[in-house]
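Trying the structure run again after the queue cleared.
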Amino acid sequence: MNRARGIARIKSESLPWDMVIIGGGATGLGCALDSVSRGYRTLLLEQADFSNGTSSRSTKLIHGGVRYLRQGNVSLVKESLAERGWLLNHLPHLVTPQLFLIPTYSWVETWYYRMGLWMYDRLAGSLRIHSSKRCNKEQALERVPALKSDTLAGGVVYWDGQFDDARLCVQTVKTIWRRGHLALNYMKVTRLNKEAGRVTGIEVLDTVGNETFSINARVVIQATGIFSDTIRAEDTPNVKPIIRSSRGSHLVVDGDFLPNGNAIMVPKTSDGRLLFLVPWLGKVIVGTTDVPDDDLCLEPKPTEEEIEFMLENAAPYLTRPIEKKDIRSVYSGLRPLVMDPKKQGDTSALSRNHVIEVSPSGLITIAGGKWTTFRKMGEDAIDKAIEVGQLAERASRSMATRYSAYDEDLPKEPTRFGQFGLDARHLKTMISWKPKLDEAIHERLPYCWAEVLWAIENELVESVEDVLSRRTRSLLLDAQAAIEAAPEVARFMAKKMDRDEAWIQSSVDSFLEIANNYLPKS
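Done. Tokens:
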């Protein structure tokens, strides 16, 4: 992928694009993936970096949604489990199985959760990972030795999927490019162009090159998450909002809190939601909260109350309670939940179903949903786009699309650089040519300079934040270590990208302004 070549292609195109997709998070990329699979000329544009918002701040789970089963939303659970199965089978280098234990404290609890998860297994059918099972106290402690044992009766084991959300985003972008289409970051849509009341394209500002383009399209799809209502209002003034944002926050602590790699699902918290403790990239993620938040921004901040909520609700289950001093990073994302403006209620009661709306001008909005169903959301949106744009009908082939850098012969067990798929060989070659690239960018971070160089040369990075927050997950794993690594990363980037001292200082300052929000407050 090369930004200059992408911009040059946009300038040279004379025919309208079949599909222009606004938004480079999970939903937009799902739309682009499906459009590309059908052979429509596809252009995706993201105002910041790919997965810059909610899509890089998830709980890192590919799941059917145990809590949606409890709410009785069987159709969503069944759809999600089918998509979970596709992801696990189709992208095993990016999505892996994860064991969960629900600790129980009476035989009634054990059988209650066992029956619920029996239904979970049945809905997954042949795509289930492993069958759930109940276990006694000794078996529960064998799987999760960190559990408090004094009142423990046993537990129920079940399986879901786990992934690195930002890495899946980047691999999807690469798939789009390698199939001959375009996805570009730092391209801010400034206006919808119309003729006779119909959307015919967009105006877009390249915020890197400070250049504006007019782009024609047969169909425009907006998949902008929490910002959906802003574009809907530009298209149709006084339109009723459909988005109600909910802030989900997480803590990240060292991996020795769950040393054997199995996760805990806490079924009862003080606000009625579930709480997960999930091993991830050598750390443990604790989350999530669910707090209404109408302050729409790219960098939401967790509150002290949310942090205390997670610490307090995890403590009864652990022999070694998590304390504030143990926290390596805190992060938040705003979920774009879809609501009926006539109804009220707390956001935990809103489902993650997606909706597709077509305005009188032909603008398509897709909103809601979750990472697990990103492909299906894209398929549904493109089905609608074919109708709106009167395009030649072509069946979706996104389920069969060969992903960038994937091969069936890739090792199924985790390996170094395994999430890069076939591209891992290029990183290893870089290191063989220049062994210094194998040195860690920081002693507390699991990334080397070869990964930074690869991101610079192949993954459309433009800032220190892009590298430390999303191409590597340094900021989420250890915020202080990422802050300490930032100046050297900036100098390395500047040398490779031909940037000056002013860029180094500006990029570091911008990163520090964001990164300080990830530091746990003492």
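Residues 479-497 form the longest helix (19 residues). Worth checking whether this holds up in the mutant runs.
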